[in-house]
C-alpha cells in the first residue's frame, strides 16, 4: 500500500485479486496501465494485467524506462503468452509501450508526476487526455479514480471528471470498492449499452423512413408515366 495525498493508506479492490490490487495501490504506473487496458475486456482482467506483466518481466513493479526500451517483439510476446493479457494483446502491448515512452520523455518516467502538481481538475484532465491511448472518456474515468480512491483532488476535480466524478455513482471503475460495487457498475454499464443500442436503432429507423416513402412515391410516379397515355398523378 502507498499513502494518498490525504495521508491514508490506499487499499484497492478493483482487480478482485489481492496481489494485483496491492500493486495497483502502490504503483502509479500499474494503475495507469490498468486503465489503459480497460476496454473490450472485463474490468478485473484489465486491472490484473499490470501484475501479470510485472511477473512476466521478473519484477514486483512496472518501470516505464524499462518498458519503453524493451524490444517491441519481445514485449508483445509478454502479452500474447497464454493466458494473454488482453483480448487484443498485440495492439495493447504496443499502446502500453507507447504510453511508457511518452512518460519517459515528458515526465522522466515518473507516472505520478502526471497528477502530482496539477493545479486544477481541468489541468489534470488535459494531462491525462494527452497520454497515448487515453481519450476524453478514459481520462475522465481515471481522474475520477484518482479523486475517489487515491485522494488526488485538485480544485474542480469532480467537475472535470464529469458524471464519473459524482459522489455515490456506480458508473465506472472509479466506483469499485468490492464485489458488490463491481456488480453495480457492471449492471450500469450493461444498461447503458442496451440504451445506446436502442437509441441507435431508433435513430436509424427514423432516418430511413422518409427515404423509403420518397422512394416508393418516386417509383409509383415513374410507373404511371410509362403507361400509354399515362401521366404523373396529381400531387
Task: Describe the protein in words.
By secondary structure, the chain is mainly alpha-helical. It is built from eleven helices and no strands. 62% of the residues lie in helices and 0% in strands. The longest helix has 48 residues, at 179-226. It starts with 17 loop residues before the first helix and ends in a 9-residue tail after the last helix.
Helices and strands in order, then pairings?
Elements: H1 18-26, H2 28-37, H3 43-56, H4 64-69, H5 72-80, H6 89-107, H7 113-116, H8 121-129, H9 136-149, H10 157-160, H11 179-226
Quick overview of this protein structure:
By secondary structure, the chain is mostly helical.
Report how far the terminal alpha carbons are from each other: 77 Å
Category by helix and strand content: mainly alpha
Q: In percent terms, what proportion of residues is strand? A: under 5%
Given the structure, what is the number of helices? Answer: 11
Give the ordered list of helices and strands.
HHHHHHHHHHH
Choose one word for the global shape: globular
- Number of strand elements: 0
From the alpha-carbon coordinates, what is the Rg to the nearest angstrom? 25 Å
What are the low-pLDDT stretches, counting only 5+ consecutive residues below 50?
A: 1-7, 231-235
Q: Describe the main β-sheet briefly.
A: none
Instruction: Please bin the fraction of helical residues.
Output: 55-70%
* Overall pLDDT metric: 89
Amino acid at each position: 500500500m502507498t499513502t494518498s495525498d490525504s495521508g491514508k493508506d490506499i487499499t484497492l479492490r478493483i482487480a478482485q485479486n489481492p496481489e494485483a490490487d496491492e500493486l495497483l495501490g502502490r504503483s502509479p504506473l500499474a494503475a495507469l496501465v490498468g486503465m489503459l487496458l480497460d476496454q473490450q475486456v472485463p474490468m478485473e482482467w484489465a486491472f490484473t494485467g499490470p501484475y501479470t506483466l510485472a511477473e512476466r518481466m521478473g519484477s514486483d513493479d512496472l518501470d516505464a524506462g524499462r518498458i519503453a526500451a524493451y524490444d517491441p517483439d519481445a514485449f508483445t510476446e509478454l502479452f500474447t503468452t497464454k493466458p494473454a493479457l488482453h483480448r487484443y494483446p498485440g495492439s495493447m502491448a504496443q499502446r502500453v509501450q507507447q504510453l511508457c515512452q511518452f512518460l519517459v520523455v515528458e515526465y522522466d518516467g515518473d507516472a505520478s508526476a502526471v497528477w502530482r502538481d496539477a493545479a486544477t481538475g481541468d489541468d489534470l484532465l488535459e494531462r491525462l487526455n494527452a497520454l497515448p491511448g487515453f481519450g476524453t472518456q478514459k481520462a475522465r474515468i481515471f481522474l475520477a479514480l484518482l479523486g475517489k480512491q487515491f485522494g488526488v483532488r485538485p480544485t474542480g476535480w469532480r467537475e472535470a471528471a464529469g458524471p464519473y466524478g459524482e459522489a455515490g455513482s456506480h458508473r465506472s471503475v472509479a466506483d469499485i470498492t468490492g464485489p458488490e460495487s463491481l456488480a453495480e457498475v457492471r449492471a450500469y454499464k450493461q444498461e447503458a449499452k442496451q440504451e445506446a443500442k436502442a437509441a441507435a436503432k431508433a435513430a436509424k429507423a427514423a432516418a430511413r423512413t422518409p427515404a423509403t416513402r420518397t422512394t416508393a412515391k418516386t417509383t409509383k410516379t415513374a410507373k404511371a408515366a410509362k403507361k400509354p397515355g399515362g401521366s404523373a398523378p396529381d400531387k
